[in-house]
Amino acid sequence: MTKNITADDIVKEENLVYKKTPVLTDNVMHYCPGCGHGTAHRLIAEVIEEMNIQPETIGITPVGCSVLMYNYLDIDMQGAAHGRAPALATAVKRLMPEKFVFTYQGDGDLAAIGTAETIHACNRGENFTIFFINNGIYGMTGGQMAPTTLPEMRSSTSPYGRDVKMMGNPLKITELVARLPGTYYVTRQAVHTPVNVRKAKKAIRQAFESQKLKKGLSLVEIVSNCNSGWKMSPVQANKWMVENMFPFYPLGDIKLEGRLLNKE
Amino acid sequence: MKELKLMKGNEAIAEAAIRAGADAYFGYPITPQSEILEYLMLERPYERTGMIVLQAESEVAAINMVYGGAGCGRKVITSSSSPGISLKQEGLSYMAGAELPCLVVNVVRGGPGLGTIQPSQSDYFQAVKGGGHGDYRLIVLAPQSVQEMADFVGLGFDLAFKYRNPAMILTDGALGQMMEKVWLDEQKPRLKDFPSWATTGKSADRERNIITSLDLDPLKQEKHNFNIQAKYKKMKEDEVRFEMIECDDAEYIFVAYGTSARICQKSVQLARERGIKAGLLRPITLFPFPEKPLKELGRQVKGMLAVEMSTGQMVEDVMLAVNGRVGVEHFGRMGGVIPSPDEIVVALENMIKKISKS
Amino acid sequence: MTEEIIIAGFGGQGVLSMGKILAYSGIMQEQEVSWMPSYGPEMRGGTANVTVILSDERISSPIINKFDTAIILNQQSMDKFENSVKPGGMLIYDGNGISRHPERKDINIYRVDAAEEAAKMESARTFNMIVLGGYLKIKPLVKLENVIKGLAESLPERHHSLIPVNEKAILRGMDIIRPVKEL
Fold first, then answer.
1. Which of A107, A185, B248, C4 is 20 to 30 A from A258 (CA-CA)?
2. Pairing of strands B327-332, B139-141
3. Between chains, do A78 and B203 touch, taking CB under 8 Å as contact?
């Protein structure tokens, strides 16, 4: 006679293989299914837990889809005006140099309205970390063209595709800031497969570790999808990202320990 | 022991900020207030008190650095002049919304646009009516001397922290550039204990602190607005500051702040030499505005002349305060022109003529 | 006592620093002082002027349009400020480069040829101290010892070795000033 297995038989300490980090709150995230933000949040929270720096970490949220990130991470956070997160982080880190400080910004926030703050914080070599989520579109406001929108890519403000003659070229701001003397660690990652998630987490860890060295700014770009804005299913969106975004925004480290890896 | 110095108004603000125990200054050069940043860089307060000084890439970045520092519960100050203060309005609105204290110095120059670098008082509306988007107010202090430039730094910080609201010192290029005697306060220590709301790192014994001006729920946002308005009401009850000069027997009064108030003090003397019983009400806080004393003077005097280096901005608040009880007129020069004591008396005489005709 | 002074000339003549030393001297004898420069584009190369007020009482307006004393060091300033001297007031000028001499009949006028004297003394930078000396001869409002103290306050320490030269210039100014018209 076999006994029926109940939940109580399974939920036991010795059976635990994975659990949600306590650095994430229990709030239900508002992100669309298939969006990369949730995974990126989790990885940052896990690294904070693993480094045991929850009481020492202050995060700055952007304006964009992740404006409500402070609902999901159980750390002290400040919400910045659109594009200004690196300015806030500059002050927070300089006033509390022993703390870990990061900004979390989308492509519109970081590479359009906040370009000046981004470039100058990088160039000054501020000792904080920028997490840059690049999905090639303005997600929150309904899928408008972003500075990172690919040539010919459709959005609600480039309904016939991005015409670079009329609308300008996409901005590879990560490659740009990597060339500044103030950046120490610059990398581009993704979170659409388990392998990429592991690599991204390693990069996030390395970025936080870089703060301890006080050698400058670390920037981790995460190329993500916006299946709602791209008007695709999550699976289609990931496939489209691999086929179109990655060739333009290739994954991997760009600058390690203050040295550019590919001096093209 | 206080220390006596001969200083420019701008320098006095910078030195007073160090002595008030400020934690940081973030700013961007613009005439006529660059001496503040220059003085701080020369003085190296990071060696004296640990105070941070940083030249930002723009006024926009500077005010957002102020936001970040204030969010950590620190005493943070920035300064600029009119065009730069316009750029800071976004940040000030966010700080008012997020209920963050800070001190902003506006050394006003003539506008609109790039305008001139000469003194003006044409940013009154922007300063006292909010300035950026949304329903909010700044605490606005109007010094009239180099001594008050120094004194209002400490006062501004105290009020900003008391109400968790940005405070502004509204001054102009004349006060910024002129030198007078100033008694400087002793060095105050920098804060060691930070407010409970500050993002200093979430320790195990408390909930996380979130600094934000965002609440997407309209009812919650409305409640937040009511809370902010309650603070402004309290300021109107408790924080009004003003000075009355020769008002006891006055038949006519000037209403003027800052540089104009200084000039009007001479005009009061000149008018009295000519047999006119003139006085001066000088608002020291422009928000909250001294409505009550003006209302009371409205019962006593035959006319009020608001003297401003603008086309007439504060005069509207004077009119609101007296509510039609007495005639209120405006005299002003603008675009960087400073009125002379004599021409103010002439303007007063013209007003008196008009009133006696009617 | 309140003395309202304007000092006006070219930028580079030491107009502002002369005013500053006068203001410091006033502080040394516990007077109220104000020092209000013209600034901006005028400050860079063209004319420069500064209003200094010394008083035993609280100073009302630091910005005034009538002066007890005008110290005038170039023609433009003569044209601009001769008529701003209060009746019965005083005008001091350096004759160097002046093509139209002062014409007022209701004020005291003195001339101090400081530029010429500074050239003789081979010390062009003490020009403004010669002028100051002339002024103090006529209106000894501040004591010489307080001027020296004021100099020490306003000069950076590395320039304190220049104080004796400046003192000599002040004394020289006292010698060479002469009346043009006294009421």
1. A107
2. unpaired
3. no
